[in-house]
Design a protein that fits this description.
Number of strands of chain A: 0
Number of helices of chain A: 12
Structural class of chain A: mainly alpha
Mean pLDDT of chain A: 96
Order of helices and strands of chain A: HHHHHHHHHHHH
Number of domains of chain A: 2
Oligomer: homodimer
CATH topology of the largest domain in chain A: Tetracycline Repressor, domain 2
Largest sheet of chain A: none
Chain lengths: 206, 206
DNA sequence: GTCTATAAGGTGATAGAC
DNA sequence: GTCTATCACCTTATAGAC
């Protein structure tokens, strides 16, 4: 791939990610993506063939981070550390990929019409793996009995909300964008609720 | 208002609520709303003037339940009961108004472009009221110190997720729709996390 | 590889008959 | 009050010059 092709593709992906996140798939106009990327409209089609294909590329860009996020479940034997690290990672994804997170959330909210079965399967299998691990910790007496699926729903929701509903969060906090300290506060609060809720002691990880 | 007008308006509101929730504002076609309501397209305009006006009516239908949800903060002096009842009410809204909840969530996610300042102000003032109440409980020593704003973010996210991300929840649980028992499980889990996270004891309410 | 000009298709909205 | 037929506009997508 030529240098210029690489640069332009990257610019288009970034611009479209922001547009799709802010407006949603249908309300996003190719011309706006082109303007934001500083390129003429036909070039968008030259590089990505169609609006839907471009959208899918944006959507899939968040999948890898999401799949990697569950690594702590395998790395640590202690549920307090594993859950804490998982929450920390999920908050980091909301912070570092706010637009792609929002595109993913919007996709899910509307019934995942563009998500391929391949990706959907990978996410499901990851979820299954995490719930199995939690159930194991429970039967090993390492944490209090809890519904693993619903625990994950709460962790997902409370961490993703910092990307998905940033407008609301900005309104309430009075800040246009959250700083590192805010994300730290969020991470600590969610971790505290989850760990204490599972009968686990808070663990210090720098 | 004539009887037929009342019936038709109601049918249109219900149909459009579902359509807007499933597709989002831009992807929703008036013709589909008309078909779902069993009426010809021009009648939608006859009753609601424009697509945007119809959307706003749907959007505002969820505001009243949301504003009423915070009543427990005023009704109860005990934070454990107030928070527990608030969570129970928020889950009930997700269960009883799943489509309107989703429309509201989608609106917020895209920066609330259609929300009037009037409504936005009411929601903000309600939020301010709730955080003040929590801060008071903390300084009264009734609960452990906690960031009230972020606590609300987690409660909102974890309760709304049952409406907003119902597709994902259906995938994971393997159920098309959740039954009363599932909502019960969700309510208890979220309540347990929040109360124990705030150093409060679980309270039994009938 | 890049971009102007245009084709093709679809949607919100309404005029006007009933 | 209701509905058929149509307008006006906008957006995706591409042909073809450079």
């Amino acid at each position: 791939m030529s240098r210029i092709r690489e640069i332009n593709s990257e610019r288009i992906l970034e611009s479209s990610c922001i547009e799709f996140a802010e407006k949603g798939y249908s309300a996003t106009k190719i011309i706006d993506i082109a303007k934001k990327a500083g390129l003429p409209k036909p070039n968008i089609y030259y590089y990505f063939q169609s609006k839907e294909n471009l959208y899918r590329c944006v959507l899939e860009s968040i999948i890898e981070p999401l799949l990697e996020a569950s690594a702590p479940f395998d790395q640590y034997e202690d549920p307090a550390i594993a859950l804490g690290e998982y929450i920390r990672t999920k908050i980091r994804i909301s912070k570092e990929h706010p637009h792609a997170s929002k595109v993913f959330a919007s996709e899910i909210m509307h019934g995942a019409p563009h998500l391929t079965k391949d990706i959907s399967d990978k996410l499901m299998s990851q979820t299954k793996h995490m719930t199995t691990r939690i159930d194991q910790w429970v039967s090993d007496g390492k944490m209090e009995p809890i519904d693993a699926q619903h625990l994950l729903f709460t962790i997902w929701a409370s961490t993703q909300t910092y990307a998905d509903f940033d407008w609301q969060i900005g309104q309430v906090t009075g800040k246009k964008t959250l700083d590192n300290h805010d994300y730290q506060t969020a991470t600590e609060l969610i971790t505290r609720l989850v760990l204490k809720g599972c009968g686990l002691n808070l663990v210090e990880i720098k």
